[in-house]
Write a structure and sequence with these properties.
Elements: E1 5-11, E2 15-22, E3 27-28, E4 33-36, H1 43-56, E5 63-67, E6 71-72, E7 75-76, H2 91-99, E8 103-107, H3 108-119, E9 128-134, E10 138-144, E11 147-149, E12 158-159, E13 162-163, H4 164-168, H5 170-175, H6 180-198, E14 202-206, H7 213-216, E15 225-228, H8 235-247, H9 250-253
Parallel strand pairs: 1-5, 5-8, 9-14, 14-15
Antiparallel strand pairs: 1-2, 2-3, 2-4, 6-7, 9-10, 10-11, 12-13
Helix pairs in contact: 1-2, 3-8
């Protein structure tokens, strides 16, 4: 099996998506498949769904996985949009046992950011670049001169007496039935707070919510350059595969050149 090809899996609060990725070009080499995230999203239930998705590609090679939590060396430290029983669980070990494949796990927004910085709108950008993924929550990927500072979790500071992602996420827009104008106001307020704290050169909006960028663009009055993720909802899948490539043993990655 060519080590240019890696299965990328993006685990979200509502869906688990995957595709086979050419990591040198960022292209999807298969159709993108999606299975609803099990509820409750316990370790065993999610691992079984990841295994089901892996089998659907008849896949037995390396897997990169974006996961909605702070992840360090495969270990899960937070659980805002998944079951709390994930905290203290080694996601890498869990997924490897379920799939019988070598699996590499990182924060879902971080891997989406890796894809956008290599193959998307962030390519070549210097200074501070922040990607915000808009979906069940608000994820973030923080880069300085192209280098990732992992597990930034900028959707979790307080706004309006609540966690920011409860105020301005895509799921909140749907749950509260917000109009584009109402949601755009909230998202702009959130982005201005991010800008006030970190003074980014560029803000990138990713995740499913980025599809509505054109509808709210005129409401976003931040000073940073701002735009939707070029790879849109595929960024998490592509970036997960890219992350796996950086963690594979040298004797595997030698073929990547």
């Amino acid at each position: 099996m060519s080590t240019n090809k890696i299965l990328g899996i993006d685990i979200g609060g509502s869906g688990i998506k995957g595709a086979i990725v050419d990591i040198t070009t960022g292209e999807l080499l298969s159709e993108r498949k999606r299975i609803p995230t099990p509820q409750p999203a316990t370790p065993d239930a999610v691992a079984n769904t990841v295994a089901e998705l892996t089998r659907s590609f008849d896949w037995n090679g390396p897997i990169g996985c974006g996961f909605p939590a702070v992840v360090k060396n495969g270990m899960v430290y937070t659980a805002s949009n998944i079951d709390k029983s994930w905290i203290g669980t080694n996601a890498r070990t869990k997924f490897q046992k379920a799939t019988n494949c070598d699996v590499f796990v990182a924060n879902d927004a971080d891997v989406a950011g890796l894809a956008e910085m290599e193959h998307g709108i962030g390519k070549g950008e210097k200074g501070t670049v922040i990607l915000i993924t808009i979906g069940t929550g608000l994820g973030s990927a923080f880069f300085y001169d192209g280098v990732l500072i992992p597990n930034s979790e900028l959707g979790h500071f307080e706004m309006e007496g609540m966690v920011a992602e409860k105020y301005a996420s895509g799921s909140t827009r749907k749950k509260e039935g917000l109009s584009d104008e109402e949601w755009g106001f909230r998202l702009n307020k959130y982005l201005k707070q991010v800008e006030r704290l970190f003074s980014p050169n560029m803000l990138i909006l990713g995740g499913g919510g980025s599809k509505r960028f054109e509808k709210i663009e005129d409401m976003l009055d931040v000073q940073a350059d701002i735009g939707p993720a070029k790879l849109r909802n595929h960024a998490g899948i592509i970036g997960a595969a890219m992350f796996a490539a950086t963690k594979m043993p040298l004797n595997s990655t030698a073929e990547l050149a």
